[in-house]
Amino acid sequence: MQRRTFMKGTLAASGVAVAVSAGLLSPRAVLAAWPKAAFEAKSVPDALNGLGVSTTAASGDIQIKAPDIAENGAVVPVTVKTSIAGVSSISIFAEKNNSPLTSNFNLKGSAQGFVATRIKMQKTSAVIAVVKADGKAFSARKEVKVTIGGCGG
Amino acid sequence: MARDMKIRAWDNGKNTSIKAIIFHPMETGLRKDKKTGKKIPGHYITEVNCEHNGKNILTCLWGPGVSKNPFLSFDFNGAKKGDKIKISWLDNQGGKGDSSATIS
Questions:
Q1: Could you give the number of structural domains in chain B?
Q2: Nearest by CB: A107 against B58, B67, B71
Q3: Alpha-carbon distance B46 to B27, whole Å?
Q4: Which residues on chain A are in Cβ contact (under 8 Å) with B78?
Q5: For residues B60 and A104, is the Cβ–Cβ distance under 8 A?
Q6: What is the CATH number of the domain that holds B74?
Q7: What's this model's pTM, rounded to 2 decimal places?
Q8: How distant is the Cα of B20 from the closest Cα of chain A, in angstroms?
Q9: Residue B74 sits in which domain range?
Q10: CA-CA distance, A24 to A28, in Å (whole number)?
Q11: Could you list the pLDDT tens digit for every one of the 104 residues in chain B?
């Protein structure tokens, strides 16, 4: 038993060492790219503006998979799938959150129009997915009923 | 921070699926400490980069609205078994981490 714990410990430690050295080898000044205005916007249109999107067209080619009733607003699984060609980014919004934009996925190369993640929702509202493809923006929404809000405060 | 990420990558017949969980508090900055009544400062992942054989395939920009211990899943094609997947992240307090996996 002790030997087993020891083995686990060393494996984990070596993993960290690799992670650290890799991190040092490829330093990136990426924080600058983070769209602060979009993430701090208080409404969906403002957040969209922050991402450089002015209008969105409703699309039937975007499927949002999320629970109808989320008991715990802190963890709401959301899957966005789209058959639109040439998808460059997928953004997920929780309409009535303090800052509605939860996440923005920039797909490159061979990445498919599919992402799944888990988001926080403050109260019952719509989950909105905005898909950018070929310079156009498409959106779809789905109502999610939240029993206990998950944003604290 | 020994185990800060789990990645699974596999060939699903049509393309490659990736599932990852990053262990991170994802503090929004809105929550209050019950004992002191002070706000807990925001601490969340802002950027996640996913690479296939050193080539970027997905960049996720996240805000505090992503759940604690964030889960991420996506699909891409053009990969084969044995290829390397690397996922790295950065948070708003300057923290970072990365982990690699091999497609099975």
A1: 1
A2: B58
A3: 12
A4: 109-110
A5: yes
A6: 2.60.40.10
A7: 0.80
A8: 10
A9: 5-31+40-102
A10: 9
A11: 446 889 999 988 888 999 999 999 998 888 888 888 888 888 999 999 999 998 999 999 999 999 999 999 999 988 888 899 999 999 999 888 989 999 98
